[in-house]
Amino acid sequence: MCAQSPTYEGPAGNFPDLGLPLEMALSVDSSWHRWQWRVRDGISHCPSETTPLLSPEKGRQSYNLTQQRVVFPNNSIFHQDWEEVSRRYPGNRTCTTKYTLFTFLPRNLFEQFHRWANLYFLFLVILNWMPSVEVFHREITILPLAIVLFVIMIKDGMEDFKRHRFDKAINCSHIRIYERKEQTYVQKHWKDVRVGDFIQMRCNEIVPADILLLFSSDPSGICHLETASLDGETNLKQRHVVKGFSQQEVQFEPELFHNTIVCEKPNNHLNKFKGYMEHPDKTRTGFGCESLLLRGCTIRNTEVAVGIVIYAGHETKAMLNNSGPRYKRSKIERRINTDIFFCIGILILMCLIGAVGHSIWNGTFEEHPPFDVPEANGSFLPHALGGFYMFLTMIILLQVLIPISLYVSIELVKLGQVFFLNNDLDLYDEETDLSIQCRALNITEDLGQIQYIFSDKTGTLTENKMVFRRCTIMGSEYSHQENAKRLETPKELDSDGEEWTQYRCLSFPARWAQDPATMRGQKGAQPLRRSQSARVPIQGHYRQRSMGNRESSQPPVAFSSSIEKDVTPDKNLLTKVRDAALWLETLTDSRPAKPSLSTTSSIADFFLALTICNSVMVSTTTEPRQRVTIKPSSKALGTSLEKIQQLFQKLKLSSLSQSFSSTAPSDTDLGESLGANVATTDSDERDDASVCSGGDSTDDGFYRSSTWDQGDILESGSGTSSEEVLEAPDPGLASPEFCYEAESPDEAALVHAAHAYSFTLVSRTPEQVTVRLPQGTCLTFSLLCTLGFDSVRKRMSVVVRHPLTGEIIVYTKGADSVIMDLLEDPACVPDIDVEKKLRKIRVRTQKHLDLYARDGLRTLCIAKKVVSEEDFRRWASFRREAEASLDNRDELLMETAQHLENQLTLLGATGIEDRLQEGVPDTIAALREAGIQLWVLTGDKQETAVNIAHSCRLLDQTDTVYSINTENQETCESILNYALEELKQFHELQKPDRKLFGFRLPSKTPSITSEAVVPEAGLVIDGKTLNAIFQGKLEKKFLELTQYCRSVLCCRSTPLQKSMIVKLVRDKLRVMTLSIGDGANDVSMIQAADIGIGISGQEGMQAVMSSDFAIARFKHLKKLLLVHGHWCYSRLARMVVYYLYKNVCYVNLLFWYQFFCGFSGSTMIDYWQMIFFNLFFTSLPPLVFGVLDKDISAETLLALPELYKSGQNSECYNLSTFWISMVDAFYQSLICFFVPYLTYKGSDIDVFTFGTPINTISLTTILLHQAMEMKTWVLFPISTRNLWEVSNLKSSEN
Fold this sequence. Notes:
The protein has 1294 residues and is α+β, with helices and mostly antiparallel strands.
C-alpha cells in the first residue's frame, strides 16, 4: 500500500460461496453478484482474502494511479471522488490538426525547413543580401524559394483545414449523458464526455468513447457491435454486460451503481483489456475486452445500451492506434540524397576554382586595377579575403546546380502515376467491386525494384473460402466423393446467380407456404427487424421499438457463399448419423453417457462438437444479422426409440438410397426418415423448396429439414412434450432460412457441414446453445464456459451441460499438432482392449491427417472430455479468480485453460479445402521469371503448405525439397551445414558479375557445364526450427542456404516470426522486399517490408489498413509489379537523371564564362532567364515525361517478365549513370558555350548579346535531350482530356 498515492476506499476480492447449486454458482448472471449496499464509511475492516491468485488486502484499499486506472462513477455518492480523479484524465475532445491560426505560419515554415534543400536555398538568399557577395537583385533570389514554400504551405493548410472540419463534426456529435443533478440522461456533445460518465446509446449510434458495458436491452446481456471502422470486419461482434448486471428487467439506474472500477492504463491493444469491478462488500468481478465498447464502433441490433466511460479522447484505443499517415522513403529518394551530396561536392569544387582563379588573376596586376574599389578607409581587401568572398559569390551564382524544383516535381509525378494506377481496369475486381488502393503515395517507384516477396497462404494465395471436404471419425475415413465431384465445377455452381437471386429472398420452403392469416396466428420464433434487438421471449418483458434509424442496405454475411454453404453428405456416414441421432434420443438422466468408444456415440459427439464449439451467430435471411433465440423447455427434449419406430412405420418411407437419385441428398433423407410427419414430394418440388441455405435447405437442394416447426412449438407451449411434438407436427409452421455469421471461415465451414447432416445450430445465447437433431428434436445445452481461440493455444473449447444426461462435457477443436499432445495417454487406461483401440484410433487418425495435408486440406482435430461436478466446480473457482486479477491476467487465464484442456478423448478430424485463387500459378511463374524470390510464410501445417506450393507452381515435382523440423540448435546447425555442402556440390561458386560504368564484365569463374544438370531445391522449415535459428545465431547459414533454393516455405510460423524473417532478409541481404497478406496476423509482416500489400479478403481490413497498397486478388500483383512497377521506376529514375543533367549543363555555362571575366562572378545571361530556367522553361516536359512515358508496352512487359530485372538492378539510375550524365552535361555545356564564343571572337558585341545565343542553344539542346529520352510520342496535338482517355484505354487493354 503506497502512502503517497491518493487513497480511495475499496473492497478486497472475496469470491462467492461455492456451496450454491452448480447452475447458480457457474452462471454468468448468478446471484452471488447481487449485493446489499453498505455505507462506505461504516466499513471498519475487510473480509479475508480467500483467493490464492490475488494478494490479500487489509483495511482500506488504496490505488496507485501511476500503475492503474481507477474510475469512479459520476453519481451522487461518488461525486467527490469522481471530481478529484477525473481531473487527471483527459476529456473526450479530440484534435487531429497540426496547426492553429497562430501557429500555422511559424510551425509550417519550421517543418518545411527541416528539408535541408530548403535550408540550403535560404542560406543562399541570406548570402545574396550581403553587399560584398551580392550577385543578383535581392528580391530575385527570394522568388524561387518563396514560390515553393508558398505552394506547399497552401497544400498543408488545406489538408489541415479539412481535418479541423472533421474534428468539429465529431466533437459536436450528440450523445445522451447521465446528469447527476437532474438524475436523467441529457443530450450533450461528444466533447462533453468525461471518464466516469454514464452513457446511454441506441441502435445504429456510434460509441463516443471506450465504454464498459453495464446494461443491454437484450435480456441475455448481449450488445451487438460493428467494428468495421476499426478493423474493417463487417461481421457483428458480441459484447457482454459485466457479470452480474445482465439480468435486469428494468432500465439501468446510475444512482444505484456503487462500485469502483480498476483497470489497466490506456494502451493501443484493440483486443486486450483487463480490469475488475470492486463491490461495496469487498468482492471483485473481473472483466475483459468482451465487455468493452470501443470508440468508433456502431451499436447494432440492440435497442438500448448503457455503460460507463473508461477511456476518453486521445486515450481511447482507436485514437492510440491512429498513428497518422504512413511515410516511407523510396530507394530512389535515398539515391537522390546521395547524388545531391555529389552535386554539392561538384559545386564546392567549382567555387574553389573560381576563388583561387580570382586570387591568381588579381595577383597578375602590378597595381590595383580600376575596377578594384577600395574600402571607405582607402585600404584594399587582401587577396585571400577577396578569394573567400568570391567563393561565396560563386555559390550564389552557381546555385542552380542544386535543383530546388526537383522535389516538387517528384511529388507531382508520383501523384500522376497514382492517378493512372487507380484507373487501371485490369486491377479492378468485379466480384468484390474493389479496385487498387494506393495508400502510400511516395514509394510507387519501389514497385519496380522488388527482389523478394513474402506471402501469406490462406486468403492470399487461396480464396479463404473454407469448404468442408472430408472427415475421419474414430479412425474411419469418410471421403465425401459426391462432395468432391461437386467442388470440381465451382464455377458452374457460382454461375447460377440468376436462379439464386430468385430464391434467396424466399423465407420459407414452398411446401410450407401458407396464407398470411395462418402465419400471423403462429407464436413461433419470428425474425427480428434491424432496428429491434435480438431477444429471448421472456414473459413480462416488453420494450418499445428503438429510435435508431433503419438502414436501407444490409452488409453481406461473411463466409456464406453457395460454395461454402453447400455440402453433399457422404452416403456411408449418412446412415451412421441416423443411428447416432436415434441413440441420442435414448439417453436419460438415469442413464448417463458413459465414456464409450462406440462409433455411434462418437459420431453424435463429433457432430455436436461441430455444431456448438464455435462463436457463430444465428440469424435468418429474411431479417439478416438478427440473432435467433429459442426459449429453453423445462422438460427433456428426447423421445423413446419405440416412439420413433412407430413414426417410421406410419410414414412408409422409401430407402435412403433413393435420396441420392438427384444431384445430392437433401436433408429430407434425414429429417423425413427420422420421424417427420410430412408427405413426401417429388424431386422437382424438393429442389424448388430447398433452394435456401440456412436452417433447412440449400440453394442447390442438397439437404432440407422438415421439422423446424417442432422446435418452434416449444416456444408457444412450454408444457408440450417432445413426444407430442413428434407425433403431430403442425405443417402450417414454416421454417426460416438460417444465416450463420462466423468470425472465421473455418467456423462457418464446420457449422455448414454439421447442418448438411441435419445437426443444425438454431440458437445461441451467452447461457445456452440449441441444436436441432435430424429427427427434429431440439436439444438445449447450458453453456457454462467458453475458452476462445487464440494463436498461442491454437484451439477453442466450450463447456456445456448435456440436457439429457446432465453431464458436464468439454468439446475442443484445434490444430492437430496441439490436440494430439493433449489426448489421454492410452497407457493409463486399465482395460487392455480399450488401450489397444485408443492407440489404433490415434494411429489411423494421424494417417488420415497426413493424407488430408498432402491433399492440401486444412485440418482440425475434434475431441471431448467429461468433467465431474466437483472438478469443474473447483476449476470454475480458479477461473473466476483469474478473471478478477489485474496483474498477469492473461497468464492466469492461459494456465486455467491448460488445466481443463487435457486428458481429452479423440473424436475425429476434419479436412477443409481452401481453393487456390484464380491466376495464382501463372502469377507466381511470371514473378519467378522476373527474378523475384517468393517465400510463403504460413501458420498451416507443413504438408498442407507443401501441397499448396506444388499446386501454385512454387515447387515442381522434380525439385529436391529440404525439410528441417527440429527444436535443437545443434541439430539445426548440422542439418544446415549438410544441406549447404550438398547443394554446393552441384553449384560451382560463381563470383557475381563485375560492373564498370554500368557495363557487365564476364566472370573469371567458369560456368557450369551444359552436361551437368543442376537440380532445383526448395526449403521447408517450421516455427520451431525458426526459433532455433534465431536463438542459435544461425541466421547467416540459413540465409546462405536460401540463396540456393528457388523457394522457401515457413510453416507453423507466428506473426512475430513472419516479421522477423522479413527484417532478416531485408537487412542482411540488403534487398527490396514486399509482403502481401490479408489477415490481422499479417500486419506485422506487412509493416516490416519495404512495401506492404494488403488483400481485401474475407478476414477484415486490418491488413489493408496497415498496407501501402491494397488489391483484391493475388493475380493483380503480376501487372502491378511487372507493368506499373516497371513504368513508375523507369519514368521517375530517368526523370531524376535528366533533372540533374540539365541543371549541371546549364550552370556550367556560367562557370566557363568565369575564365573570360576574371572570375569576377559576372554573368552573360539575364537574371530573369536564369530564374525561369527551372520554374518555367524546363519544368513541364519532365513532368509529362515522368507521368506518361512508356519505354516498353504493357503487352511486352507481361510477355517478357525478364525485362523487370532492369529495375531490380537499378539500371536506369545508379552511380554509373549519374556520373555518365554528369560527364555528358560538362561536354554539352562546352559545346554550347564555345561554339558561340568562337563565332563572336574578335567582335565588339555586348555581354548580353553574347549570352543570348548561348542560352538559346543550351535550352534547345536540353529540350532535345529530353525528346530523345522519351519513348512515347503522339503525332497530333490533343487535349489533356483525350490524352488521359488514351492512356487509360491502353492500360485497360493491356
